[in-house]
Task: structure prediction
Amino acid sequence: MQSYWIQSSTGQTTLERREAPLPEPAAGQVLVRMRAAGLNRGEFIAGHGLTKPGAAKPAGGEGAGEIFKLGAGVTGLAPGARVMGRCGGAFAEYALMDAREAVAIPARLSWEEAASIPLTFMVVHDMLIAQGRLAAGEWLLVTGISSGVGVATLQTGKALGAKVIGTSGSADKLERLKAAGLDLGIRTRAGDFCEAVITATGGKGANLAVNNVGGSVFAECVRALAFQGRLATVGYVDGALKAEMDIEALHAKRLTLFGVSNKLRSPEQRAESAHGFVADILPMIADGRIRPLIDRAYDFDQLPAAKAYMESNAHLGKIVLRIQESGAT
Result:
């Protein structure tokens, strides 16, 4: 089969297309004939640590397709079923998926839409529901809101009844996100948005802030939080891994700061998070209250171009790879 591999070195990541043997599902796994896969910025940024220096590894982290073969002990799933999920090596004609994370695709979704969902919306579930406890009527602040995770956070926040403030360096992207319910867009890439957030929220601040950007805006996110506010750190595209900590604000405002990552989670914990997504967010996707926003879809042989487009920061929402079977195994 055809597959892409990724390698990190000298502060950058590179892709290589290879012919690889068809994977064999182990106990508890399913082998999926991939139809589409979603791109995620964290995999391509060397500083995120998702692609560690050294030997190349299979690329891709989420996708959608049809079950091709079941591993031992797998029940409740059948060959031919349309599924989506997080899976290593998703940029390939076939990939292995933990059967506990294989989610049935709602009939209304295309392959491309389904592939854009698993990793992104499971992260959003972790931020907004599992840890963030976002309630209807609360204010949600999202930095870097035009990213795939940022747009999904906006969509889910609105579906949960929150009021959403977003930051972006592009006035055009902020304007376009008004159609998705953005209540206030702040054009900036710097940590200078606290005053606008405080004003918009009637002097109170945001109840929950999502930091997609990194250390350069961490302190400003803390300043922009309301009493008993919560701050989720999910990314650091700015490469800033250190930030000022206002201990007085943390103490006086009784703030909660938490990270959102699957790096150290066990397979059991990852499966539990998938079940939470299925219970709390998937119904909103299935009935159309949330519709994944795809910026562009590329054919399989165009993955290097898709990676370059993601790194240009020109996209709004998700970038997806279409996967057509070559017939080689």
About this structure: The longest strand covers residues 29-38. The radius of gyration is 20 Å. The chain has a mean pLDDT of 95.
